[in-house]
Design a protein that fits this description.
With 128 residues, the protein is α/β, with parallel strands linked by helices. The protein has two helices and eight strands.
Length: 128
């Protein structure tokens, strides 16, 4: 019997966000996307050196930036059941609007928000 090459319930690819204020980002993900925190490792100063949250079927990894690994802007696309409600929740929990939800030339209605850690979340729902 061979050992599994990845933890049970993890996808093969996971975004890794290096942000300013990882604890705030985790709270935002919990409040906006109903993320579930899986683990958090902090250093002696309380800085998060590694954390993981599950959003639906995906694990997102993140950490506080530092001199060696400075925070950087990232873009993450996420499908949700209701793009309008999710974008409203994101704004209620401190995000700023990048684009109001709109359907353009494909089958997705999509909006964008940026959280306080610098990540832009493109939020979409497939519509017919």
């Amino acid at each position: 019997m061979s050992a599994a090459f990845k933890p049970e319930g993890y996808t093969s690819v996971a975004p890794y966000l290096v942000v300013k204020g990882a604890a705030d980002t985790i709270r935002f993900l919990e409040q906006t996307f109903e993320a579930v925190e899986l683990r958090r490792i902090a250093d002696d100063n309380g800085r998060i050196v590694h954390a993981e949250v599950r959003i639906d079927d995906t694990v997102v990894m993140l950490a506080d930036g530092n001199e060696q690994w400075p925070p950087f802007s990232a873009y993450v696309h996420i499908y949700v059941p209701d793009v309008d409600a999710t974008c409203r929740r994101a704004l209620e929990h401190g995000a700023t609007s990048v684009q109001e939800p709109v359907q353009k030339d494909d089958e997705d209605k999509r909006g964008g928000v940026q959280d306080s850690g610098g990540t832009t979340w493109w939020i979409a729902t497939k519509v017919d």
